[in-house]
Request: fold
Amino acid sequence: MYDLLVIGAGSGGVRAARVAAGYGAKVAIAEEYRIGGTCVIRGCVPKKLLVYGAHFAEDLEDAARFGWRIENAQFEWTVLRDNVLAEVERLSGLYTQTLRNHNVEILRGRATFRSSTEVEIDGRIVRAKTILIATGARPHIPDRPGCEHGITSNEAFHLDALPRRIVIAGGGYIANEFAGIFNKLGSTVTVINRSDQILRGYDEQIRDRLLQISLTKGIRFLFNAPIDRVEKRPDGTLLVQLQNGESVECDTLMFATGRVPNTDGLGCERAGVEIDERGAVKVDDMNRTTCPSIYAVGDVTNRVQLTPVAIREAQAFADTVFGGKPTKVDYDCIPSAVFSHPPLAGVGLTESEARNRLGSIKIYTSDFRPMKHVLANRNERALYKLVVDNATGRVVGAHMIGPDAPEILQVVAIAVKAGLTKEQFDQTVAIHPTMAEELVLLK
Reply:
């Protein structure tokens, strides 16, 4: 019998297994596919590499104004694709090695519960005193006729060729990131969204700026346009019929319409683990499910679907159960980013949230053209924004869109989390010339 069995070897599961083993527990981890999970295999990491690749399109355009003559530049999708997949393979190997270095036994196969302490993995019964569910989530595909002809972000990394025309369904971060990627790599991109806005939850002024820039780059957006049905033609092309009567022709249809917790077929009911109406595992603030011996972390709980949050939850679980250090994750003031073109990032309260919660606030913004864009004759503008509590002077939110916004926001998030005031921002000497200096010069 194991002290801990982890189901799912993604970022959360690997962290929990490694830390618990470090505390002396006998640990096994079950994985039916590849070690590394969504983030490493089919999410954050390969997506960010595609973003880097796509950025070269603009960099090569801008280079001429900086004195570089680059003639006959050509893009080969298969080179980028294969190099990205090779890096994914390398990282998966490193995760595997990390588990082995910590004496975590890797059990290959699909795990299903038999009881609160028993799991079946490809016909083998495995017993553990404590079980952690870390099975993550999967892309949602609408239940409409013909939608089986579409792909998701999972398959986007394996395309045989770059689609000439791609329709992306969705308005969240995945839809906007891949819209930017495919647009810069040369595809004609149409984004269809069932609502009337993109990036719900991000600051309205920032997301509006992304929409304006995306339209300028040639990305087409259709709002209030849920899919009615999809028709596949004899030549392989697709006709996407929308419920508003419009239709769009494309070579590839990609769904980015949210993610669903991976609990189907897990057999949670046999272990006394309750699941909510969205298929997520119910947990308390210590990550414990309705079964005392079973815990869950990460996207399968549908709390905050971010890799760093899953890792925090996994660390807290291992510290609490095996380290004798009861730990709760603080979900307040979590920074996040969208690696769109250009990227955006935010932390804390948006302007509308702050007005509703605090009443009296002050907004400080800087709307500027980055120096690099000026010389490149690129009219694209960055926008930085601080939301300040008028009563205390505390910066309660920071939001930005522009080159390297996520890199800059990570540091700003520390200041917002620490409760620093606008005056303390102002007292900090600027680093000139940088884009980030705008944050300490806002008036």
About this structure: The longest strand covers residues 124-133. The longest helix spans residues 77-101.
